[in-house]
Amino acid sequence: MRKTVVWVVAVGAVLGMAVGSVATAAPQQSTKGRWGQPAAGGASQRSAAASVRAAAAAAPDGARRLIVVGREDQFEEVDTGEPGLSPGDYVVFTERLRSRDGRRPLGYDTVRCTDIFERFRCDATFTLRRRGNIEVAGTLTFPNGPGGSVLAITGGTGEFEDAEGEVHLVFSDDPEDTDVVFVFHLVD
Q: At the fourth CATH level, which superfamily is domain 34-187?
């Protein structure tokens, strides 16, 4: 069962930073969810299908396109300062990755997003079974435009060893659908 975690204003995630000793605040009513997106109803009132089409069309010439869907698996928030969302607070989470039609499990991601004054610095590793890892990083702001939010592909392993490019994060308008569609544009 999906764990619902709420924040006051927004969340962010950044991988690989040492947690050290931090206090965790009790969850509070929120308007944001994973990846810093609005928790109630997606990033805007556009159709998710149209957003995926726009993200897919944004591929540079010669780029390989890979589309996967992420569904929340684990989620933890860390409140580092005053109670409630403030700069430096972060979330860590994992998502199960599946094929676009949802039938085939493909792997998982591990993510950390940090609140940086209402922008969200996110770093993630996407692990695709028997293929390798894709590393991504960047800063997200909301609302976002056609094609969703965009992060840079900063490297990878295995099949993705020399990967560069970008990944578009597309959120559904349906408040009951918290899946995220990732449209990777890989340039080797």
A: Allene oxide cyclase-like (2.40.480.10)
